[in-house]
Specification:
Length: about 90
């Protein structure tokens, strides 16, 4: 059985907060109606929400609210980064 395709929302975007570009990716598997949310900073550090969203608009609203409430620096906290072996 082939892996399902990933569908990216047209609401995915780059948001500049305090001079830091944060890429907001909203996506789902083609056979699943719920949306995943991921924010990636300019160094490639990825923050993925555990919860899934009913709509891509809900996911975008959550990302923008988090950026507004916690600031871009919340995505650059080295205490939140899991280092993978190279």
């Amino acid at each position: 059985m082939a892996d399902p395709n990933i569908v990216f929302s047209g609401l995915s975007m780059t948001n500049n907060e305090c001079g830091l570009d944060l890429r907001i990716d909203i996506y789902r598997l083609e056979d699943n109606p719920t949306w995943s949310l991921e924010v990636i900073d300019d160094e490639g550090t990825s923050t993925v929400w555990d919860e899934l969203f009913e709509t891509d608009q809900e996911a975008l609203d959550e990302a923008l609210k988090t950026i507004r409430d916690e600031g871009a620096s919340a995505f650059r906290d080295p205490g939140n980064v899991v280092k993978f072996p190279r």
